[in-house]
Amino acid sequence: MKEQLTKKIKILLRYLVLVVWGTQVFSVAAQENQHAVAGLVVNTSGAAISGASIKEVGGTNSGRTDAEGRFTLELSTADATLQVSYVGYVTQEVSVGGKSSLRVVLMETNEQLDEVVVVGYGTQRKANVTGAISSVNMKELESRPVVNVVEALQGTTPGLTIQQSNSQPGSRPAINIRGINTLNNNDPMVIIDGILGDIQNVNMADIENISVLKDAASAAIYGSRASNGVILITTKKGSKGVSRVSYDYIFAEQTPTFMPQIVDSWEYAELRNEALINSGRPTQFTAEQIADFRANGPNTNWMKEIYRTRAPQQSHNLSLSGGGDKTTYLISAAYLDQESMFKGPDYGLERFNFRTNVETEVSDRFKVGVRAAYARNTLKDHAYWTDWLIEQATRMPSIYPIRNAEGEYTYPSGSNSNSLARLEQGGVRKSANDDLSGILNAEYKLWDGLKLRGMVGTQLYYNRMKENRKAIPGSGDLENRSTNGSQRIQNITTNLILSYDKTWGNHTVNALAGYSYEGSTDNRFETFRITEESNYDIMGGLQTVNTGNQEWQHEWSIYSAFLRMNYNFADKYLFEFNLRDDISSKFRRGNRSAWFPSMSAGWVISEEGFYSEGLKGIMPSAKIRSSWGLVGNNRIADYQYQANVNIAQGYNFGNTMYPVASFDAANPDLRWETTQMFNVGADLGFLDNALTLSGEYYVNDTYDILIEIPIPGLFGGGTPIQNAGRVRNKGWEIAARYQFNTGAVNHTVSGNLSDSKNKVIDTKGTEWINGFDVNTIVREGYPINSYYAYRWDGYFQTAEEVAQGPHVDGITPKPGDLRYLDKNGDGIVKEDDDRFVLGNRFPRFLYGFNYAVGWKGLDFSMFWQGVGQRQVWLRGESVEAFHNNNEGPVFDFHIDRWTPNNPNATYPRLTVGAESANNAIKSNFWIENAAYLRLKNVQLGYTFPKHWTDRVSLSRLRIYTSIQNALTFADMKGGWDPETADGGGRIYPVNRTFSVGLNLNF
């Protein structure tokens, strides 16, 4: 493997040498006498701008202004030109003209095309980008009371789909870029400061920039795992001559956004009697009992009883940054405490973050940097399964109290459990997660424009879990179970990159070639013991029954070589070419290597001579671009090309031997899954570029998909992975941003809208159905994992309609029951013949809208986010009255049920037991419209004037209040949140968060 890669690296280095030689013939080296200049940089109000960048045009000398806006710089010539820039201001070029002192005034600007965008292994001016890249405006995410940056990103970027199905401490929102490309893993690649990282463990206050790479032109440089897109995160660093101390504090209260509404006890009793009568059974409640319920309750909402009315959350961020002439530094620490909404012994999440970024210029040619980060997550939770606890609470009707008159927990039904008892007395699960990463990088300037960069980074992830589950008297639980587990993952990343940047006349060339290595080792161990001692958590000893353990170890590695070349002619014609070769250990020799090329081009029409001044007055910037390329995916379990033996702990009818039970079949012909991406886009600017508009259209074809093709269970072993599928995913994106002033008031309006839709093209003639509560199907011609069930066709209104059919096979319906379409017209509705493809859980037509306004020290912002189309299939106790013959619950929407006097009801007749079989069948009656519009964040703040803060030795003081998930507009049955996952509705709620905050800068 290494010999093969070495040959390819030599080819790439020869290519780079040719590029350097070819461009050098157009350049002439010059030596000039040095000249010193000092200066002051201010804004139009005369206020000093600290941290402004000062660069000598055509030279290597550069610096930054200090806290008072001043700078000094040694120049190569007295006639040099300086480029002065700062975020939010127009970049200026100032001729020195032999002067030794300058005063530079920067004007605020709405210009967005001069922004610098982070790309793979480098940066580019936004105006010169030819790929589909979105850069997140971190300023708009400031001060949001979120637990991690993923929550804050929702709705901010077109094509970036984030689904937060719940707010339970430690939960992980789902992330997708441009929809679903594969039947395999669809998670994007996340790179933090050059190495693979966990986006959930990054302190949002430490982030300088987030770039989302969405097409092959931007992502192919990463080759492997880039088929699902790439998220690049760059953390902050210090500035020369500027020292800052910053402190942020947020205190918040969490409450559920939605909570199911159930009927009172007396209504429940009446509806229960009705259901029993409809099912041919005697009633359960007398008129006297119903009257007592009406007068005295208890009207217990068991789902509400397991939650607190509110739970506090707080965060602290402290950072120190600055630098001298040669060295810059940033040191930060953060603390988060999120308490759980569950009642119980202090459930919740604590996170501690620490980061240090240091860079130093050893000489004019050589600089080194060190970046280190540490995150510890400590999660304390109940010892059960969250969905099961919520399920048990959902099944309890309002007629039973949580506790009896003596204050003891009640267990009113043999098939149900008291979830509150388990939360408060059933034991705890504690996990401590340590995430430590370190990066050492260096850069050496070989000569003008030619640099050699190297980086070595490592990430160590260590997790320890201890669970002590206790038996609860009266619940039927007699076992105390202790479980200990640990996991240790170590990732190593190295790369060496040679880059060359040169401009001569109208020609600009940027090229790089490099080598990288990534390796990972994953070790896991778990052991358990079942005892009669409730507090017995020591796992060693002589116990030989009701105990066990298991252990795993996995390793993988990737060797890569890559190159990129950009050519820019007069900022008018733009070209880019990328190529990467990945060699993965997940495939056998001969199939390990794969090449991933991409190419893109852009045409800045507004730079053409025929682009008239009148047109420039309307649309000063206009660029069209297109890209094509290949990216790969190798996200399968390790060792799939080899046969793996599984050892079972005993036979089915005994426990004395440990035989070989089964094996996972090997597939030595496995090869890379590949996605071909095509993208066209346009970037337009209006009103002096105060209004910018961008649009994208893309088509992604993924082939050789790595999937398990279902085979008969009689095979006796694990199904082998195969390259056997093809999926097409296409969509479009629109984003707009407008910045303007009305007098002293600053306005920013931005929005985005996007859609993606996938279709299964080929599954080698097979299809498969998944799920228990909810069935999904993978079928050619339809989206991946589409819902698959009967189609509802109204109610049977009369006995005559029932007699005419059609009927579900083996069931005789009655008036008020659901009727289903008989696809083949044989009068019998059967699974084999009459099921339909009925929609998809993946959201479509995603949109976000942000408005921010500032006047003097006041600022106000609101951010709306939503989904235009999404289906959610709710089943069981989340929507069905008396589900599975359990006693409850009954929701408020069940009141509008079918009766002879209410034939157009929203719910069928009430039934229990076997009489419910017809209506409980899987059909689109239970599929909900989960489209929604949500006021994701609204914030009001005030920044105190500088003459006030100077009195207390502060450079900035801001106070603010904010609400996260403030309002939601949706149409879901039962009061479930529209972002909830499909199934039984057994989901911890999404939280609404009220917060106040403070920001101090020294």
In words, what does this structure look like?
- Keywords: Cell outer membrane, Membrane, TonB box, Transmembrane, Transmembrane beta strand, Transport.
- It comes from Sphingobacterium gobiense.
- This is SusC/RagA family protein.
- It is found in: Cell outer membrane.
- The protein has 1002 residues and is mainly beta.
- Among the domains are: 31-106, Carboxypeptidase-like, regulatory domain (Immunoglobulin-like), CATH 2.60.40; 792-834, no CATH class.
- It contains 13 helices and 50 strands.
- The strands form eleven sheets. It has a 22-stranded antiparallel β-barrel. The protein has a five-stranded mixed β-sheet with strand order 10-15-16-13-14. The protein has a four-stranded antiparallel β-sheet with strand order 3-2-5-6, with no helix packed on it.
- The longest helix has 23 residues, at 2-24.
Number of helical runs? 13
Mean pLDDT: 87
CATH hierarchy class name of one domain: Mainly Beta
Low-confidence stretches: 11-32, 650-660
Question: Brief overview, please?
Answer:
With 1002 residues, the protein is mainly beta. It has 13 helices and 50 strands. The strands form eleven sheets. The chain has a 22-stranded antiparallel β-barrel.
